[in-house]
Amino acid sequence: MQASFLRGKTALVTGSTSGIGLGIAHSLAAAGANIVFNGFGDPDEIQAIQKTTEEKFSVKTAYHNADMSKASEIAALMAFASATFGGVDILVNNAGIQYVANIEDFPVEKWDAIIAINLTSCFHTTRLALPYMKEKNWGRIINLASVHGLVASAQKSAYVAAKHGLIGLTKTTALENAQTGITCNAICPGWVLTPLVQKQVDARAERDNISNEAAKKALLAEKQPSGEFVTPEQLGALAVFFCSDSASQIRGVAWNMDGGWAAQ
Fold first, then answer.
1. 203 and 140 in one domain?
2. Average pLDDT for 193-211
3. Which of 63, 99, 132, 159 is an active site residue?
4. What is the pLDDT of residue 68?
């Protein structure tokens, strides 16, 4: 692939102020795309992320703090991206939250929030991005699902339901646009050492009175045969590939990068 083959295109990555989203944003910027960041965090830190991205990759960036659980704020985010850069060429639906509990104990408000952010927000961004993509007859929609979009785990009912639903949305979006230059695919990571996962590692270390490193190994041993975490940079490289001409006939896939998790 040409190093800067996305030069002049704009990528909107939701939940991109840390973790997987930031890794993907940086990978797309390295390929030349301008970036619209979204997510929560300290304003000074977000400004520093923007500045670093602009200087390192010679691209333009913007930031919008839309709450992805609210349709009106998502609409404002998409309008902002259009006003700033003319439109969204690459949409990466990455924003997500997690909560763990048995179904009978699962707080209803947590279920609603997880479905809203992990699934419904992707419908809203997609429906608002498609008209511009159709006008250009080019677009890439990349949904960050999860290995939990392919298999389930106990105590994660809302997350598993949302991610399975997101893969369904991916397939439908791909089929509706199959004869256009717009593709839609899902990436399904296994364990990635994000701040969200680090919290689970910390909790396990405290619960079992073991070191953080031992807690990481124990977490991986349960599900991920490789015994290694997937990295945001690896996920970013896959996202960049999905944007290339080589991937123009990859449509509606749920591509797992999970160290062998779903192969078991």
1. no
2. 93
3. 159
4. 98
CA 171 to chain centre: 16
Query: Is 4 inside any structural domain?
Result: no
Q: Helices (DSSP H) in 86-194: which residue ranges? A: 108-115, 121-136, 157-176
> What 3-state class would DSSP assign to 140?
strand
159 is a catalytic site residue? yes
Q: What pLDDT digit, counting tens, does each position of 116-168 carry?
A: 999 999 999 999 999 999 999 999 999 999 999 999 999 999 999 999 999 99
Q: Do the domain assignments include residue 263?
A: no
CA atoms within 13 A on the CB side of 202: 7
Asked whether 253 and 166 are in contact (CB, 8 A), the reply is no
Res. 74: pLDDT tops 90: yes
- Which pLDDT score, from 0 to 100, does residue 1 have? 65
Burial of 72 (0-12, 13-18, 19+ CB in 10 A): exposed
Residues 206 and 136 in one domain: no
CA angle 43, 47, 50 (to 5 degrees): 140
> pLDDT at position 195, please?
82
- The pLDDT value recorded for residue 196 is 78
Co-location of 204 and 180 in the same domain: no
Q: How far apart are CA 38 and CA 13, in angstroms?
A: 7
Q: Are residues 71 and 125 in the same domain?
A: yes
220 and 147 share a domain? no
Task: Supply the range of the domain harboring residue 179.
Answer: 10-190+230-256
User: Would residue 2 count as lying in a domain?
Assistant: no
Pair (105, 199) in one structural domain:
no
Nearest to 163 by CA among 229, 95, 222: 95
